[in-house]
Amino acid sequence: MLKVLFSIFLILVVTPLQAQSIRLKAHHMLPPVAPGHSMMLAPWVEKVEQESGGRLEIDIYPLMHLGGQAPALTDQAYDGIVDIVWTLPGYTPGRFPRIEVFELPFLAAHPVVMNFAIQDFLENHPEEFDGYKLISVFVHAGQLIHSKVPIHTTAELAGLKYRIPARISAWMVESWGGTPIGTTVQKIPEMLSKGIVDAALIPYEASFGLKIHDMVDYHILLDDETWPRLNAQVLMVIMNLQTYDRLPLDLKGVIDANSGRNVAKWMGETWVEMERAGELAAEASGDLIYLPREEVELLRQKSQRQVAERWISVVENAGIDGRALVDEATALLEHYGQLFAAGALE
């Protein structure tokens, strides 16, 4: 009789508790119309919810609706104020110093190539994200210059004011003789409209969501056979470690199945797709200018000499062998670039 009563207790009490959904908060700085929200983060959340059988529910809060400025997102995830954030390591310079190597000028490649290279890199340097559950580190399709004035030569880059997202981009602008002005992405329209900056370094994806194509007439890329962008910006989706640790084992498995190498290709391909709307808008409203190859080579030499060496020096002051990281990242990008060209990346 006692066994029967205990079985009834398990059915009535324990099973509903096991089936109870867990609600999480995801926070980011993009507007909900931005492709990064609608085409990447929201589909990722939907897939996780479906694969959890409805036991995980994730509410997305865009545009910093839960408070704070974009640079605070990293701490919000670490402190458990929110459960998941989409942000940039570069918003907190020096906190994730190793992964910054992928932002150096002229290391940009196809996002799928870069995302796979980053997975290997992080396996070699797991200490970079201690204290977080790392869902994904990835890149956008690369930065181009959205400018109010035409730029056809390296010399014409000098003397302009540029909005930049992080310190590597700032150093790159300084190497051109320009003035970098750092701010989060949502402030770019105001800065352009008020003449605070002459140009902005962002991918097409972000420019489309912010309607930058209505505010500038020129979009500057590189005539470069490797990749037509100046550099890539590293982004990340991170989760509060305690939130992850409290999940049942099977729900941890759902998160893991949608993290790291498992989403690297999808995120890279999705970002290339996300770029298309911004590119079409730029073509329709302004001019796409490709810096000639001889100018690209001048820019490459200047950027690599000044920016890469500066970064190596800065991270070495923090006890990190920056030159070894540059060599490692370059080798990984070459390796995955060859696999991608052969159609062998899955």
Notes on the protein architecture:
It contains twelve helices and eleven strands. The protein is of the alpha/beta class and 346 residues long. The protein has two domains: 144 residues, Bacterial extracellular solute-binding protein, family 7 (D-Maltodextrin-Binding Protein, domain 2, 3-Layer(aba) Sandwich), CATH 3.40.190.170; 155 residues, Bacterial extracellular solute-binding protein, family 7 (D-Maltodextrin-Binding Protein, domain 2, 3-Layer(aba) Sandwich), CATH 3.40.190.170. Strands 7-6-8-5-9-11 form a six-stranded mixed beta sheet. The protein has a five-stranded mixed beta sheet with strand order 2-1-3-10-4. Helix 4 packs antiparallel against helix 10 and helix 4 packs across helix 12. The longest helix has 25 residues. The chain is globular and about 65 Å long. The N terminus is likely disordered.
